[in-house]
Amino acid sequence: MDSGKAGVEFFERYVAPNLGAERDDVLLGPTHGADFGVVDAGGGRVLALASDPLFVLRDLGIVDAAWFAFHVAVSDVALSGLPPTHLAVDWNLPEDVDEAEIGRVFEVFDREARALGTSIVTGHTGAYEGCSFPTVGGATALAFGDRDDLVFPTSANVGDDVVVTNGPAIETVGIIASVFGEDLDLPAETVATARERFREASPVRDALTAAATGEVTAMHDATERGLANALHELAAASDVGVRVERDRVPVAPGVEAVCDHLGIDPWMASSSGTVVLAARDGDRVVSALDEEGIRAAVVGRVTESDVVVDDTPLAVPDADPFWPTYARLRGNKNA
């Protein structure tokens, strides 16, 4: 199995046939292109939930690493349009973990959770042989709210506008510039600008702001394999197509310079913090995002089939350049 999230073939062969008991209260189970599941809680209430690895990249410095880990944990459930309300955290730590360092991580989780109104309600903490950073466990985030406020990832409709927030390669550029900026042969001003992308590497505020307009019909974030893959998964979840104009997609300052320097295709690079969404009125969504200082644009329309950019079919990415590039730069730094 290749590194990273399993592809659709693995999902269809091994995951989809093995989902346990069928229950009437499951409104949305595992679905290709969907970031979360949904359970009917009764009385017009629903529970959206999503699980992700606990990913603490200590190269960022422990505070930024903890911030990023928390937002990875709650990002998918926020794409339901409901604020994350509860979090379960499973810490599987290396045996030589620095207790004070991991204590600082817990403090950042507490701070970020309080800011979102999220309660950490259960979990597990232990140190075990074979565990190592950066992946040190997993978390399940839950969002409990009104069914009328829920944005199903499967409800994009033909004719909807397609909106993209932040632009491609936000996560890739923000992390690489933060960790390796002094090693890049780029002007200091460019590196400083690129580092600013790191704080955009969370889709939570984007998703909740967009959903609050009442115009959004589906959302997806551009994590592994980037914006190109996110467009495909948004379309797949609703069994539709999308048609996008490349020049209308926002590009954040510093992204082109870093990607060009490293030979990275920004559309294929991991970009947590980039939300791709379908909306009945995209201009209204963009206006709401703009009021919050979030970069966004209407970039195209939902169609009946196919994913097309500038009249050319968009290939499904088979690899993400982020981590191979990260490993190469880390190797050079340690050589």
H-E order: HEEEHEHEEEHHHEHEHEHEEEH
For the report, how would you describe the main beta sheet? 7 strands, mixed
- How much is the radius of gyration in Å? 19 Å
CATH architecture of the largest domain: Alpha-Beta Complex
Give the CATH level 1 class of the largest domain. Alpha Beta
| Averaged pLDDT | 96
Shape: globular
Name of the CATH superfamily of the largest domain: PurM-like C-terminal domain
Instruction: Walk across the major sheet and give the strand order.
Output: 8-10-7-11-9-12-13
Stated plainly, the CATH topology of the largest domain is called Phosphoribosyl-aminoimidazole Synthetase, Chain A, domain 2
Number of distinct beta strands:
13
Low-confidence stretches: none
List the domain count as a whole number: 2
Give helix % range.
25-40%
Query: Could you give the distance between the termini?
Result: 29 Å
